[in-house]
Design brief:
301 residues; alpha/beta; globular
Length: 301
């Protein structure tokens, strides 16, 4: 079964040749007043106003902890224009939202607002920096009144140097090269590129965040090593999050690789102390902690 077929089976909606969108679990819960994702707690993003999408379902890493079918190859034959992707995603988002209008638990005020999403999380599947028109895509979303996250694996520092999202969000899943090659299983040794991206982040004035996804027995080690890399990027925020035993990752990792929330908190404190940051917030349900330079958090929107 091809990657596109597998993604469709999992509820992803393919846009054009290589993009995708999928309604988040928290979108539905937010519409019903049943809570919001940790990005709402950390950054003030309302889940029912968030559009989760990607301009490229292909990826140059095959991370152990990824819940997507990363083992399946995907080759892009031709690149769609940003307008095609944005228009297609907004159309599908509105179609998702329309289905909640007939559900008794739906908050009708939120439902009406949700037809005009205010945030795009460019983080769904694949690596967005592989899309050659990412800068123009972000600019188009901004023109349409939406804030943006770009979530990247940091293997394309040349692209990160040019894009201007509301918050640039980079994964940092290893404290050293050997662990990176094991945890992220890249198509080539891209560790030097990851380090270049950290330096690019360190030169930016705009908001930036790093995310550490912790896998017990694999990369949940050497907090001082992580701290040294964090200092290169000097991010506003660092998210320290547990690997979650979901999707296709269950074929690669045992359930025991998923740390408990108290273990995440303990590791986050060690990293924060070594990097001279402070623990700011945590969300137990998502097993995630947020650290910042001064222990405070400024909402994105």
């Amino acid at each position: 079964m091809s990657l596109v077929e597998l993604l469709k089976k999992q509820g992803y909606h393919i846009i054009g040749e290589h993009s995708a969108i999928k309604p988040c679990l928290w979108l539905g819960r937010s519409l019903k007043g049943q809570g919001a994702c940790y990005k709402s707690h950390f950054y003030g993003i309302q889940s029912h106003l968030c559009m989760q999408m990607t301009p490229c379902i292909a990826c140059n890493q095959r991370c152990l902890h990824c819940w997507r079918p990363v083992e399946e190859p995907f080759t892009v034959k031709s690149w769609d224009r940003p307008e095609t992707i944005v228009d297609g995603c907004l159309k599908e988002q509105k179609r998702f939202i329309s289905g909640y209008g007939g559900i008794q638990e739906t908050d009708l005020r939120r439902w009406k607002d949700a037809f005009e999403p205010r945030h795009a999380a460019i983080s769904l599947v694949g690596e967005p920096t592989l899309y050659p028109h990412l800068k123009e895509l972000v600019a188009l979303l901004s023109e349409r009144g939406m804030s943006t996250f770009i979530v990247t694996n940091g293997t394309r520092p040349d692209v990160l140097d040019k894009v201007t999202p509301s918050q640039l969000y980079m994964s940092l899943d290893a404290p050293d090269r050997e662990t990176y090659l094991t945890a992220c299983n890249p198509v080539a040794d891209l560790w030097d590129k990851v380090n270049e991206s950290l330096e690019v982040l360190g030169q930016r004035d705009s908001r930036r965040a790093l995310r550490l996804t912790l896998i017990k027995g694999v990369n949940m080690k050497d907090p001082e090593g992580y701290a040294a890399l964090i200092k290169k990027a000097s991010p506003d925020y660092v998210e320290v999050k547990a690997y979650m035993h979901l999707g296709y990752s269950r074929n690669r990792l045992p359930r025991e690789a998923m740390p408990k929330h108290e273990e995440v908190l303990s590791f986050a404190r060690q990293v924060a102390d070594a990097a001279q940051y402070k623990l700011a917030l945590d969300v137990e349900l998502s097993r995630v902690a947020l650290v910042s330079k001064d222990g405070a958090v400024k909402p994105l929107i």
